[in-house]
Amino acid sequence: xxxxxxxxxxxxxxxxxxxxxxxxxxxxxxxxxxxxxxxxxxxxxxxxxxxxxxxxxxxxxxxxxxxxxxxxxxxxxxxxxxxxxxxxxxxxxxxxxxxxxxxxxxxxxxxxxxxxxxxxxxxxxxxxxxxxxxxxxxxxxxxxxxxxxxxxxxxxxxxxxxxxxxxxxxxxxxxxxxxxxxxxxxxxxxxxxxxxxxxxxx
Length: 202
Known about the structure:
Elements: E1 5-10, H1 21-35, E2 39-44, H2 64-73, E3 76-84, E4 87-88, H3 90-99, E5 118-125, H4 130-144, E6 153-157, H5 174-196
Parallel strand pairs: 1-2, 1-3, 3-5, 5-6
Antiparallel strand pairs: 3-4
Helix pairs in contact: 1-5
């Protein structure tokens, strides 16, 4: 079995080290990947100076190039984001705007640079919108070149207009836990497959 790496970009609006539901969900998923032999790491976007823009490097202290390097080194990208006002967080949208620069980036064989990488998504919130946000994330990741495995997204949303967050739960609900098990197993299988049989060059 080839060695695999996973990197989680966590789009919470809460800086470290404060508790974050998105961070907790991401770490649950990374933990399951680690159980399957995957090397993992993560970063909260809010802890970095990620400038607005659609270039690989916006200059003036922009820290996106370092986060991008970690994405490029990984076989699996996990994108975790909360729901705010029915949409993914502004930092989630910023990640997609920065990834837009790589629509035209290619590898040594002329393939889009994010080809042969697997993407997973996680969404949390205490309001409606999980399917909407997941759909946006999956479409955007696919456009950029990532491959989303079967059942490649997990979400938890609390009762609408209430204050319970994922981090407030005493235990993970069984449907969430079983989805995490399935998505991580599928991600590892797909990442191994793409390592042994990459997409063809154009």
